[in-house]
Amino acid sequence: MDYASCRDLIDGRYLDSLTILALVAELEEEFDVTVPTVEIVPTNFNSADAIWAMIERLQEEG
């Protein structure tokens, strides 16, 4: 699986709800951001690019 180019991590069922919660915890710790519940939607987690865009947006919002 090439996660870098995959565009359906959620829709393709590669990530489930528990994995997403664990990923959110890791992202918050690694990038010093808080991922609000409203951000935990398929659009933000369907690809590595989408996850990175969310992180950058959250860092800018501070």
Task: Give the structure's gist in a few sentences.
The protein contains three helices and no strands.
Draw up the topology in text.
Layout lengths: L16 H15 L10 H4 L2 H14 L1
By DSSP, the count of extended strands is 0
> Quaternary status of these chains?
single chain
> How far is the N terminus from the C terminus?
33 Å
Decide which structural class fits the backbone. mainly alpha
The helicity comes to: 40-55%
Range of strand content? under 5%
What is the number of helical segments per DSSP (H or I, 4+ residues)? 3
Shape: globular
Q: Please trace the helix and strand order, writing H or E for each element.
A: HHH
Uncertain runs are: none
Radius of gyration from the alpha-carbon trace, in angstroms: 11 Å
The overall pLDDT, averaged over residues, is: 94
Largest sheet, in brief, is: none
Based on the model shown, name its key terms.
mainly alpha; 3 helices
Walkthrough of the structure:
With 62 residues, the protein is mostly helical. The protein has three helices and no strands. The protein starts with 16 loop residues before the first helix and ends with a helix. The model has no long low-confidence stretch (mean pLDDT 94).
